[in-house]
Amino acid sequence: MTVKHLSSRTVGEIPLPFPPLHEQRQIVADIEAQFTRLDAGVAALKRVQANLKRYRASVLKAACEGRLVPTEADLARKEGRTFESGEQLLRRILAERRKNWSGRGKYKEPIPPYTANLPRLPEGWTWASVEQLSFLDLGFAFKSAEFADSGIKLLRGDNIEPGRLRWADTRYWPKSKMESFKHLLVKAGDIVLAMDRPLISLGLKIARTRPDDLPCLLVQRMARFRPLVDEITSFLFHALNTDRFIKHLVGGQQGTQLPHISGNGIQSFPIAIPPLTEQKRIVAEVERRLSVIDELETLITTNLHRASRLRQSVLKNLLAPR
């Protein structure tokens, strides 16, 4: 139950047990001893939590720099075979982009990344911009006056947190008014990113949609990535979770108060693209390691909540009349 406010009179009328002074001292000593142990445990859990966050970032960094699994170039050389390089894959993706273009006016080639200041890549890799790899769709400003009590869920910035969508506070669009907005329907596996205040203490508000998130519509200030080749979606998602992408968005700003980001800023981000077969091995290894991290983080969160309840239990037991 939430109490909005307390008056001084109400506080003054709360009955409190008042033990003898010698007993008070013993109670305080017991509370402080218990709290000292609890504080040490909580501090240890938070240190592990911070280390896991750093490890997650290092796994993604290594994955997107070709240091997590053997490169396709090395394997092909040992096995005496050829392979499709990242550069060849990019040419194939760009051909798909031209083929599937349905925008207005004459087709324009996407802008390649500026590579002068980028690090050297492993053999068989190449640089590509987000714009070269996927179509980026932005949501629509649905009028709140037309929201309904049920219908199609509206995917807003409030519905996304790092790694997943949440629907505790859901707004709906009437099914009867869907005809003009079918292009904004999100599909399972789409990558979605909040463009207003995208960075919070837990990380970047980016996620892949699941079947149970659907159907939902993309709202204004939400971005959707649709890779030109479905097979690169998982690798692209991990690349967009790296600290390098966050730094690209943040620029010179500090902390987690990034107000909003632009579509141009997203599309210009350079991604190192390995051969497709190497991508699959990278994704499998990343997801294996991240699944272990997720389990440990869940365990830590559970124990932090337990420590909070235990603190209240200590106060209740030691301050209760004997």
Protein architecture, described:
The chain has 322 residues and is an alpha+beta fold. The chain has a domain at 93-100 and 110-274: Alpha-Beta Complex (Adenine-n6-DNA-methyltransferase TaqI, Chain A, domain 2), CATH 3.90.220.20. The chain has nine helices and 13 strands. Strands 2-12-7-10 form a four-stranded antiparallel sheet. The protein has a three-stranded mixed sheet with strand order 6-3-11, with no helix packed on it. Strands 1-13 form a two-stranded antiparallel ribbon. Strand 8 and strand 9 form a beta hairpin. Helix 2 (21-63) runs antiparallel to helix 9. The longest helix has 44 residues, at 276-319. The two termini are 28 Å apart.
Distinctive features:
single chain; 322 residues; alpha+beta; Adenine-n6-DNA-methyltransferase TaqI, Chain A, domain 2; four-stranded antiparallel sheet; three-stranded mixed sheet; 9 helices; 13 strands; 13% strand
Concise overview:
This protein is α+β, with helices and mostly antiparallel strands and 322 residues long. Helix content is 43%, strand content 13%. It has a domain at 93-100 and 110-274: Adenine-n6-DNA-methyltransferase TaqI, Chain A, domain 2, CATH 3.90.220.20.
Compile the SSE list and pairings.
Elements: H1 8-12, H2 21-63, H3 72-79, H4 86-99, E1 126-129, H5 130-133, E2 134-138, E3 152-155, E4 160-161, E5 164-165, E6 172-173, E7 191-194, E8 199-200, E9 203-204, E10 206-208, E11 216-218, E12 222-227, H6 233-239, H7 243-250, H8 263-267, E13 270-273, H9 276-319
Parallel strand pairs: 3-11
Antiparallel strand pairs: 1-13, 2-12, 3-6, 4-5, 7-10, 7-12, 8-9
Helix pairs in contact: 2-9
